Amino acid sequence: MVLRYWLQNWLRQKASRTVREKMGEALREELAKRQGEQAGNEPQAEPPACRLGAVFALEIESGGLEDLLQEAVAVRGHGFTAVRGVLARRNVVIVRSGAGSEAAATATEALIQGHRPEWVVSAGFAGALVPELGRHDLVVADSVVDPAGNVATFELKLDREELARMDGVHVGRLLTVERVVRLPNEKRSLGQKHHAIAADMETFAVAEVCRRREVPLLAVRIITDAVDDELPPDVDRLTRQKTTARQFGAAVGAIWNRPSSFKDMYRLKETALVASDRLAKFLASTLTQLVPLPPAKQ
Fold first, then answer.
1. What is the pTM of this model?
2. Superfamily of domain 54-290
């Protein structure tokens, strides 16, 4: 009964999303048609540069920030989704790359080439590697390391003293790994080996692209599992699914093979929704520090 209810609920959500997407596509096509009629055969102008570009792996991570955008328009293609909008009078582009370093690097390259951001933010969820970090704490990275020990550092433009006064905000090193780290003993071991306080799957790749392109980077992650939290065995496979349909298929397969995983997934989803909203509020508050508005003309 539970599985049937979940299937029905998912189908309703999918149908609603499909309708919204088709309406959005029709609107964009109509706007393009009108612009073409007005401009004749003149070449299309490049989209304006954005003040901030944010790279997330998954929609559930970026959803909180996307909800804050005004005039948001989504464009899909090349394996990732870009959402362009306005936040605090600044043009912002959010890219959902899919999980993992390769996907993040590809999306970051496209973001920089296509939208020319003044700043790039690597954002999303992370797992704690030290006991000082609790669930829904924020990590502002001052460096990132990969499993081979390669380190990328970047200048932290935010006020460290102000960050230290914020409840649940930590400054430290991220570790970018190739898979979800599930077990507490492995988390602690990785934290000690790499002197890192949290682990994600994308930031090192984003940092390498930004270094080559000479674009400043801010990395902010929110903790969704504390160091002593053991994640369910299905979470890594679910994370790597890029589309909603594939995520649903992987979830159904997990429930079929392990019925108790439904409870695990529901708990993870609730944690993720709270985390996404808190991360969005923090990113919105830092936007004004990273990219101040030009002075008003006299």
1. 0.76
2. Nucleoside phosphorylase domain (3.40.50.1580)
